[in-house]
Amino acid sequence: MIKPATGRSVMLACDHGYFMGPTHRLENPRKTIEPLLPYADTLAVTRGVLRSSVDPKWDTPILLRVSGGASILKDDLSDEEITTSMKDAVRLNVSAVALSVFVGTQHEKQSLVNLSRLVDEGEEYGMPVMAITAVGKELEKRDAKYLALACRVSAEIGVQIVKTYYCENFSKVVNGTPVPLVVAGGPKLNTVDDVLNLVYNAIQDGAVGVDMGRNIWQNDHPVAMINAIRSIVHEDATVKEALQVFSDNMITEPKKVEPQIH
C-alpha cells in the first residue's frame, strides 16, 4: 500500500456508498474505478463493491472499509459498529481494513472500543488496521489540536496507519502521531489548484500520501487528476509542475460521459 521506493502512497477512496448511497459519479462503481486503478497504489472499498465491481484479476492492494451502521438520513453519523468480520476480510484477500473513529462525539467510546477490537483481531491474522478520524459531521473540528488528539489516540490503540484531514499547523499532528498519516480529500474542492495545493502542503508537512475520492473521480478529468496527484506524492513535483501534468493528461484522456437517466 505504501510504495517502498518512495515511502508514500496514492490511495483511491471509493467507499462513500456505505453511508451516502449512489454518490455522484460513483453510481456505477466499476465504471468509476476501472480507468483509475492503474494509477492507484491502494483502492478503498466495501466488501459489497469489492465482490460486485472489482475484477479479481486486478492486483491493486485493497483497503477494506469494515465500519458502518448509519446513513446520511441519520442525525448522528458517529453511531457505527464493525460491519465486516476479520475472517471475511482475510477471505477477500485484502491488504488492510479501515474503521472510522469519532473522537469528541456521543459515540466516542463506542468507536474507540470498536477500533481496539479490530486491532486485536488484526493482530491475530496479521492484518493492518487504518483509523479514519474526524469524518461526517465532525468536519468542523478540523484543527490541529483536535486532529492531533484523534490521531494520537488511534495510534495508542495500535493501528498501523491513520487517515485524517489536513489543517493549519499540520506538522503538529504528524509529530504527535507515531504511525504514518495519509490525508483525506474531504468534500470536492472548487478547483484543480485547490486540490494540488492540498496534496503538496500535506506532503511537505509530513503526510506519507493521500486517500482521495471525490476530488479525483468527480473531476471532469479524473485520470489527469490522479496523475497530477501522483507527480506530487511520488515525484516531489511542485504545484506548477503538477498542473502541467494535469494539462498534459487532460489532452489525451477520453471525455467523461455522464450516465443517462430515463
Characteristic terms for this protein:
262 residues, alpha/beta, TIM Barrel, two-stranded antiparallel ribbon, 15% strand
- The total count of strands amounts to 10
* Average of per-residue pLDDT values: 93
The Cα radius of gyration reads 17 Å
Name of the CATH homologous superfamily = Aldolase class I
Going by CATH, the architecture would be: Alpha-Beta Barrel
Characterise the protein shown here.
The protein is of the alpha/beta class and 262 residues long. The protein has one domain: Alpha-Beta Barrel (TIM Barrel). Helix content is 40%, strand content 15%. It is built from 11 helices and 10 strands. α8 runs parallel beside α10 (222-235) and α10 runs antiparallel to α11. It is globular and about 50 Å long. It starts with 8 loop residues before the first strand and ends in a 10-residue tail after the last helix. The model has no long low-confidence stretch (mean pLDDT 93).
